Amino acid sequence: MSHQPKLHHIRVGGLSLAAFEWRAALRGSAPTLWLVHATGFHGRVWDQVIHQLPGHHVIAIEQRGHGRSEGTGFDSWADFGRDQAAMAAALDLQGAVGVGHSMGAHALVQAAAYEPARFRQLVLIDPVIRAPAEYHQPLPPPDTLHPSAQRKNRFASAQEMFERFADRPPYSVFDTQALHDYCQHGLKPAADGQGFELACAPAFEGRIYPMALANAGIYASIRALQVPVLVLRARPQDPSIKPWDALGTPTWPALAQEFRFGRDLQLMDKTHMMPMEDPGLVARLIADAMAGAGA
Fold first, then answer.
1. Which residues contact 141 (CB under 8 A, 6 or more apart)?
2. Which helix (H) or strand (E) holds 33?
3. How far apart are CA 95 and CA 81, in angstroms?
4. Please, which residues have CB within 8 angstroms of residue 262's CB and are 6 or more apart in sequence?
5. Architecture of the domain whose range is 6-141+212-292
6. Are the C-beta atoms of residues 39 and 65 closer than 8 Å to each other?
7. CB of 280 within 8 A of CB of 52?
8. Is CB count within 10 Å lower at the N or C end of the chain?
């Protein structure tokens, strides 16, 4: 059986979106794992988690503007949820276990509400879902950019990227091989032929974060779900870290209670980068959640 995934390109709403399929021969023998990365990452950041779940068919998607998926404008994070729902339908997903991280977990909630037959269970790793009242606050101007828009975008090689990031938070908490995976698969040849550029353009990443509260409909999706949902939360944010603590949890502490069948688990010794920080632990938690739900 191949140790490398197959790359699929799926046409959704005029966009070509990418998905990596692992162990296609196992499809149908057990629930598919549907993995969704966070803002700025890509489908191959899950490699070390996948390696520790050997008996499972896996599809690791790449959201619009990330990895090998095409990028285009978006009005809110709901667009990422609609993309996922359309991808799940196009791939004829049936009763999958959806696992999402950060913004990817937020979008996964909406995808599961749009296409309920596609998912039997969700594991949400530090989802960026805030308290309901926060979604009624004034939004930033449409052209607002997060500081991530100024990220270094040009590298001579994946090794140069690794060496630059290894000692810099938040990447400094990554498992070494997970950081290599992020760098190796997170670059594409530069348009001018000189070196490589980030596969998620900094300008695109910088537009995503300010839109975090532009999706009040997330709570309608939460309340529509009829499946077990495990919410994994990292340690609290440290208010002394300015301008903000990127390694603390962005999740509303009471979120799990909003799901019909929700369960909360906070890991005080882990950070927001949990899937890349401790892939073995995340794999075990996914497996335990599946066993507990009878998946």
1. none
2. strand 33-36
3. 17
4. 229, 230, 231, 255, 256
5. 3-Layer(aba) Sandwich (3.40)
6. no
7. yes
8. N
Q: Please state the pTM of the whole predicted model.
A: 0.96
H helix runs in 73-191, sequence order: 78-90, 103-114, 158-165, 176-185
The CA distance from 230 to 248, in Å, is: 18
24, 56 in Cβ contact below 8 A?
A: no
Per-residue pLDDT of the chain (295 residues; tens, 9 = 90+): 347 999 999 999 899 999 999 999 999 998 999 999 999 999 999 999 999 999 999 999 999 999 999 988 898 999 999 999 999 999 999 999 999 999 999 999 999 999 999 999 999 999 999 999 999 999 888 788 999 999 999 999 999 999 999 999 999 999 999 999 999 999 999 989 999 999 999 999 999 999 999 999 999 999 999 999 999 999 999 999 888 899 999 999 999 999 999 999 999 999 999 999 999 999 999 999 998 866 6
| Closest by Cα among 34, 85, 89 to 57 | 34
- For tokens 């974060």, name the residue: 209
DSSP string, 216-277: TTHHHHHHH--S-EEEEE-PPP-TTSSS--TTS--S-TTGGGGSTTEEEEE-TT--TTHHHH
Structure tokens at 181: 């995976």
